[in-house]
Amino acid sequence: MKKKVKTVLNLLAVCFLSGIIFIGVGYLYLNRELKPTENKTESVPYYPEAPESAGVMFDICGDRTLCYMNFEDGSLNILFDTEQTAVGDTLYGYSVDYLIEGDYDLLSVIIDIAGGIEMENGEEVLRFTGVQVTDILSRTTDREELRRKIISKIIEKIRETGFQKADFLYIIENSNTNLTVPDCYYWSDYITDLCTNARIIN
To answer: Which of 101, 115, 125, 135 could bond 59 through an S-S bridge, CB–CB 3.0 to 4.6 Å?
Structure first.
């Protein structure tokens, strides 16, 4: 009887020690596997990518002007089109991606959105509204020089006041165009900088 009890106790002791060893080895193994990985990735702020550069051809009563917005280098290039360049073609190497056809009413609203423009009238510098500018433009036979002045003044004003998403929406809704809101959604965020680096190419 004593021999049986001793055998049972020895067996229990061996099972107990085996269990402790098994649990200990398992704990050490899991502890090593669950060690947190080192993540040295620094937090990088998110900056949306600049829009793709695009050329918008304005056709106002037959007077065609290409505004090429280069978002990569932050510049606005103005080109006068006498060749009726089609959408998809290039004018002096600048792509024509969108066409906006409108009348003097559209130009008048764009000028008013910018807050009017200042132009010389004799020896005075006066502020003109959109209606006043388009009235002068419609009565001038040699419009080339006047168009250049008007465009330069509009760019100066947009550089100061900006051009909002709602303004682009107005142009889209009140012209014949292939431009859509998704196409120009982020343009208003960059337009002020583009107008700072504006140049007339031809």
So the answer is: 101
pLDDT in tens, 14-66: 666 676 776 766 666 666 655 555 555 555 555 567 899 999 999 999 999 99
pLDDT tens digits, 104-131: 999 999 999 999 999 887 788 889 999 9
Which ranges of the chain would DSSP assign to H, the alpha helix?
2-33, 104-113, 130-139, 144-161, 165-173, 181-184, 191-196
Sequential DSSP letters for 109-148: HHHHHTT-EEEEETTEEEEE-HHHHHHHHHH-S--HHHHH
Which among 109, 93, 113 is positioned nearest to 60, based on CA atoms?
Answer: 109
Query: What is the dihedral sign for C-alpha 159, 152, 76, 141?
Result: positive
Is 179:100 a contact under the CB 8 Å cutoff? yes
DSSP one-letter string for 21-33 = HHHHHHHHHHHHH
